[in-house]
Amino acid sequence: MPMTLTQLVVMALLQIVLLLAFVMMLVPLITFAERKVIAYVQVRLGATRTAGGLWGAQAGRTHKSRTLTGGLNGLMWYLGRVPMLSIFRGLPVFIADAVKLLTKEDIVPEGADKAVFILSPAISVISAFTVFSAVAFAPGALFTFPAWFPIVGGLPFNAFLTDINVGLLFILGISSVGVYGIVLGAWASNSKYPLLGGLRSAAQIISYEVPLTLSLLVPVILTGSLNFNEMARRTATEVHWLAIPLLFVGFFIYTTCAFAETNRVPFDLAEAETELVSGFHTEYTGMKFSFYFLAEYANMILVSALAAGFFLGGHYLLPFGFQTFLMKAGETAWFNQPSILFFLGKVLFLLFVFIWVRATLPRYRYDQLMHVGWKYLIPYTLVLIFVAALIRYIA
Amino acid sequence: MAASFLRTLIPFDIYGGMKLTGKYFGKVFIQSNRQKKRTHFTAEYPEVKVKLAPRYRGRLQMIKDEQGEIKCVCCLACEKICPTQVITIEKGKKEGRKTPYPTRYDFEMERCIFCEFCVESCGFDSIILNHQFELAAYNREDFSHGMEGGFQNMFDVTPVGHYSVAEDVQ
Q1: pLDDT, tens digit, for every residue of B65-80?
Q2: Is the pTM of this model over 0.95?
Q3: Long-range Cβ pairs for the range A112-116 (8 Å, 24+)
Q4: Which of residues 332 through 391 in chain A touch B, CB cutoff 8 A?
């Protein structure tokens, strides 16, 4: 159905709002999950209550308090008896986290380059959010607007913002801009530790950009496309059986590079507390810091979405191209239908893996990081590309 | 050679570590609710008190025997050995009791270092350091314990939170 310009704009705005809301809501939930998962790995309970003292003197001391936070804590205390719901005790902490970040004092250090200092977190967060415009959460429409709906009535609401043919190139290009935010912010801080952290981060991201892109070339070669939907569909359902182990190995290499790309443990050298106070964002406070925070977690969601889309079978049920065998059962079966639920499940699992790895592995030394990147990952990915080309030639 | 090459190629150690932490995660994740046998080490403090070790040194407390008589015989051993001199005993007499009777037994907790020398020196087992650890108070006078008068009791464990101003507010 052809759309008028108004319909196009309104539809795009609706999609953007939904996408931003999704990412922005997921980020604080990931921070909550991070607290909980790391606590469970360390045989603790993590956050189980909020702080007291809100709306009432001496609140929150026990679950018997008659104030707002005290009552909330009492609710969570009784929730602790319910077997599976007890995981969600302490969930209001994520609101407290967000409020704390937003209400903190905003300090610009003396001697800092003020314009760049303010601009660089914006660069980071804009690049982190812009890439989601090329990510398809489901291949088709999520739902159709009912006919009575103003302006966009009767139109399908797509689960992707744009369906561009060079989607992967767009994603990789825009997400590389994020490193400018880190380097410029570090440099503009007029402080030693941020500068060192920023330089480390720049070197790390630039060296891991190479194996990351090379490992993403494997699905590109296998599918012969750069379109997100097309690649997700073909890697899941139309690959040669020889490509299954290739995708399996490629997934692990891609994930390793993704950890380094997003500055996560075990490659979070940019914010190594023991050497650099907290890396490039040492001098950042309040909203500006929360922008960096948001960008880091949005990047995590992005690399998880890419891994889920190109290696774990995208919008289909089975990972690594196993869906190819399942497709013989018939196109109409429910497990052969692409769904946003399969995709989101995979993304959430990968986000869990991010936290799981953070709770397990210690930080690499800087020379070890470069060693792993240049001496191991790049040769591995080159071999993978060679094998992928062979399979493409055979099939 | 081949084995070491394979070891560099496939990160077995990372797999082992992830397996271990994953095992712990699963265990605590499934049983994170309150139950008799806990899998986690978290003490949910204000609601559930931690069970202390038997040798924990809390507040000084005087002990009575089965007849309800104070066991202390005023030998002043605890007063003498106390490094910070927080114990003051006044010797006295009581009807129908052969041994001396303490008419005053003052204990000033604000200077006490909880060394347990007094308990060790006592030959009659008449004092102990009990298991009370919530000893904070808002007023200095609250730290002076004695045998008489209001909550300044040497014989019982102080009720929890008794010293806090919040209790009076609510």
Answers
A1: 888 788 888 889 999 9
A2: no
A3: A112/A188, A112/A189, A112/A190, A112/A283, A113/A187, A113/A188, A113/A190, A116/A184, A116/A185, A116/A187, A116/A188
A4: 356-357, 359-361, 376
